[in-house]
Structure formats: C-alpha cells, structure tokens
Amino acid sequence: MLSTRVAVGYRRYHAERNGFGYRKHLPVGRHFTYKSNMTLIAELLRGFSQLIYPNMCWACHTVLGPDDGLFCGDCLPQLTIDLFPTCPRCSSSVGPYVVLNKGCTQCTGQTFGFDGAFLAGPYDGLLREVILRMKAWSGEDLTEALATVWADAMAERLKPLTADCVIPIPLHWRRRWWRGFNQSEILSLALAKKLDVPCLLKALQRTRHTASQTAQSGATGRQENVHKAFAATRSLDLAGKTVLLVDDVLTTGATTSEAAKALRVHKPKAIYAVVVAH
Ligand SMILES: [Zn+2]
Ligand SMILES: [Zn+2]
Questions:
Q1: Ligand minimally distant from the alpha carbon of residue 110
Q2: pTM of the model
Q3: Domain limits at 113?
Q4: What is the CA(101)–ligand 2 centre distance, in A?
Q5: In this structure, what CATH number is given to the domain that contains residue 232?
Q6: What is the pLDDT of residues 43-74, one digit of tens each?
Q7: 241 falls within a domain
Q8: Ligand index nearest the alpha carbon of residue 59
C-alpha cells in the first residue's frame, strides 16, 4: 500500500470525519456536521502529491517509513510530552517545588469560568512553530495531524475526569471564513473520538467579532476584548455534566474563561479547559 503523508493525515482523518466515524458521538436529534472549505482544486493537488511525496514528518519533513506515524521520533515528544510541572488552575509552567493550593503566580487572585486546565506543553519551540503554521490559511491538514497525536496524549490524562462531552471554542464567522476552518473544532473532534464522548460543535456561538487577542495589551485588555463575546445554545443539556472546553492556545485564559461562563447558564458540574499549549 502506498503510504504517504496525505494518506496518513488528510484522507484518513477526513474519511472518518465525514463518514460515520464521528457522527455516532453526536447527541441524538442533533446532527451537527462539519463542512470542510477545501476546494476541489486543493483536493486534486493533494491527491497528486500522494503519488510523488513519500510519508514525511508533519513538523520537520523528515522522510518516514510507510508504517511510521504522523511525526518522527524527534518531533513527537516535543509536541506531546510536557517536561515541566504545570499549574492545575491555569496550566502555566511552574517550578518543581511551588505550592499550588491557590494557583500559581500567574493566576493567583484571578477568577476563571473554568475549573482547571490541561495542556500538551508550553507555547515554545517546535510546538509554537507548529501551532503558528497550523493557523495559516493552508494549515488544516497540519492541524488534523497534530490533533491526532494531541488527542492520543491528552486522553490518558483526561480519562479520570469522566467527561461527558467536548466543546470547541468557536471562531466568529468572518475569521472562520478567512481561515477556512476552525482549529478548535478539529482538535475537539479528535479528542471526542478518542474519549468516545459527544463533540458539541454548535454548543457555543460568537455573539460579536472581536479583535485579535494578541493585539491586546495585558490581561485586562484581553478580558475586555472578549467580554460577553460568547453565547451558549439554548437547547443544550449540560446539567450536572463535565465539559471539556477545547482551544489551541491558552494565554491569559480570558477567551476560554469567557466561553466557559457562557456555558455556566446550563449548570454543568465542571468545565475544564483543554488546550495544546500555554
Ligand atoms: Zn520530525
Ligand atoms: Zn496558575
């Protein structure tokens, strides 16, 4: 069998996502669908590349064997293993002997809409580079590759939470249209599949377009920028349930916190932020 990065990444993931692989996880009566914006031309180009490119690491493009995974042995640990202890409240990297009863120095005194945070690693080095690449217009395939290994790594740590569902942070339709996909949706779908729980793609909506958080100065500016920027779907049934709220990067936690606050109207038991990096 000809195994290429396309076969391993794009086609396998889309076959599952657009077939029945994920649909069985959706709640009864709500058939949310994910519509890819890939054009026919892009599909044809990728099909052509399958014929000429061997299987390569999605991060460093090292040529891999036909039965190897999505990333090489050097890159995979850098993307999925966190060498640093992290604050359970905000997921900031902390020193080995820090007392975290009330959070770390980054989050003490702050209030969040979520009850705790989990991440794959610090927003640095190769992980940062891959996240920046996947947020580019053409980053959908890379996002799917990272989502696969990220979900594998996170699932073991998240299983003790016995979560009931996974919810992505939505993009405003303008940004979604510009990028062509929502990276949080792709991450959520992969995680929900791995944990065998529903992925509620329409649970949250952006009520208004917000400026980029990276353009805001300081935590206060970020909080004000996303204040009441989310609304939860009225028909959600989250009462007493544990929710995993997924985004790619958690910086000050303002965006994820605001989204979690919107979900609180449905009285969930707990909401945990689950991200790729902090
Ligand atoms: Zn590599
Ligand atoms: Zn903290």
A1: 2
A2: 0.79
A3: 73-277
A4: 10
A5: 3.40.50.2020
A6: 566 556 556 666 889 999 888 888 889 999 99
A7: yes
A8: 1
